[in-house]
């Protein structure tokens, strides 16, 4: 190789590395429906050379890997990571999902006198969930509305399911076989739990005031303080807003792609789609939710809750404001 060829090779390599380095990297759990707008945004609004890289994970990855720029996750996990990584920031709400809880009405009450039909009837019963997740917090919060503390029932841990027949140790399987009397979790596992029992043998509870998942887009202070990276993040959010409008108003356009991404059939998606709110923004009560929920996370993680003033640092509205201003300018 001549010196000229060598220099040319280094130049090409530098260009390739620069091309890769300017691509956003996004971390999210790739098996949840809520992450799909991130995938569609990446595919539909970026060229092959600039398309963001999406890796499996969530906020736990963005706080431990400096190559990751954005992350999708529920607010429970953001609170868990913020306790030790105070540079984490919430930028935008991708989906809000009031979880549901299903009970097997043919199970007997604790005294064995009648079939269960209410949340209060779950006293002494076995309630399925997934530990240290938004589902676990939902179950505890919902049952508190019926006067049940977390020691008044047995929490039984099971797994997710995306398509029937659900396998051993998944929550729908356990409900159908009487291993649990009820369970609460995100979709589509909950819907498959309903379908796992005969018609008329289930009752479903949902209370947005008790809990709704607030699945957000996150970054870090370090990324946002970098002018070039911040510009890329604002650009991505602009396109994400456009995609969420499709998810909200014309979901039939993205059913097939969502089905392919998370292995959930279109008929199931059609049943559960409206459980999800894709309208975006940042909820006006977000800080209130974080403050109350952090008490639970702190107890589970064995730490003191963060103050309201500290939790304010977790929310960054400036990226949303910049993206909305740019969208408005483009439309005018």
Low-confidence stretches: 1-20
Radius of gyration: 22 Å
Largest sheet: 5 strands, mixed
In CATH, the architecture of the largest domain is: 3-Layer(aba) Sandwich
The total tally of domains equals: 2
Class per helix and strand makeup: alpha/beta
**Coarse shape:** globular
How far is the first residue's CA from the last residue's CA?
A: 55 Å
The average pLDDT score comes to 94
Output the helix-strand order. Answer: HEHEHEHEEEHEHEHEEHHHHHHH
Helix count from the secondary structure assignment: 14
Helical content, roughly?
40-55%
Give the CATH H-level superfamily of the largest domain: Periplasmic binding protein-like II
CATH class annotation of the largest domain: Alpha Beta
Strand fraction: 15-25%
Widest beta sheet: strand line-up: 2-1-3-10-4
CATH fold naming of the largest domain = D-Maltodextrin-Binding Protein, domain 2
Tally of strands: 10
What can you see in these coordinates?
- By secondary structure, the protein is α/β, with parallel strands linked by helices.
- The chain has two domains: 3-96 and 214-331, 3-Layer(aba) Sandwich (D-Maltodextrin-Binding Protein, domain 2); 100-205, D-Maltodextrin-Binding Protein, domain 2 (3-Layer(aba) Sandwich), CATH 3.40.190.
- It is built from 14 helices and ten strands.
- It has helices at residues 3-21, 36-45, 59-62, 75-82, 134-144, 171-176, 189-196, 221-225, 227-249, 255-262, 266-272, 286-301, 308-312, 318-331; strands at residues 25-28, 53-56, 70-74, 88-97, 100-104, 126-129, 154-157, 182-185, 202-205, 213-220.
- The chain is globular, with a radius of gyration of 22 Å.
């Amino acid at each position: 190789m001549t010196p000229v060829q060598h220099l040319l090779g280094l130049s090409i390599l530098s260009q390739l590395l620069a091309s890769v380095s300017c691509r956003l990297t996004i971390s999210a759990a790739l098996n949840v429906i809520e992450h799909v707008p991130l995938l569609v945004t990446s595919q539909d609004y970026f060229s092959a050379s600039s398309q963001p890289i999406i890796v499996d994970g969530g906020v736990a990855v963005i706080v431990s890997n400096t190559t990751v720029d954005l992350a999708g996750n529920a607010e429970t996990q953001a609170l868990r990571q913020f306790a030790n990584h105070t540079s984490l920031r919430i930028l935008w709400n991708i989906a809000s999902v009031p979880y549901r809880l299903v009970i097997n009405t043919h199970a007997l009450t604790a005294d064995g006198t009648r079939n269960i039909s209410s949340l209060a009837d779950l006293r002494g019963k076995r309630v399925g969930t997934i530990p240290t997740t938004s589902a676990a917090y939902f179950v505890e919060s919902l049952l508190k509305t019926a006067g049940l503390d977390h020691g008044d029932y047995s929490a039984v841990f099971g797994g997710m399911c995306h398509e029937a027949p659900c396998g051993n140790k998944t929550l729908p399987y356990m409900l159908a076989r009487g291993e649990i009397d009820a369970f609460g979790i995100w979709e589509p596992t909950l819907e498959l739990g309903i379908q796992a029992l005969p018609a008329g043998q289930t009752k479903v509870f949902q209370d947005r005031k008790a809990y709704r998942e607030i699945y957000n887009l996150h970054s870090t202070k370090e990324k946002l303080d970098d002018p070039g990276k911040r510009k890329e993040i604002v650009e991505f959010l602009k396109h994400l807003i456009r995609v969420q409008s499709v998810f909200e108003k014309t979901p039939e356009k993205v059913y097939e792609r969502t089905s392919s991404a998370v292995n959930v059939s279109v008929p199931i998606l059609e049943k559960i789609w409206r459980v999800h709110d894709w309208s975006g923004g940042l909820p006006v009560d977000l800080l209130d939710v974080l403050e109350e929920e952090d008490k639970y996370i702190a107890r589970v993680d064995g730490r003191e809750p963060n103050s309201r003033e500290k939790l304010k640092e977790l929310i960054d509205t400036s990226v949303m404001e910049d993206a909305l201003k740019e969208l408005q300018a483009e439309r005018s």
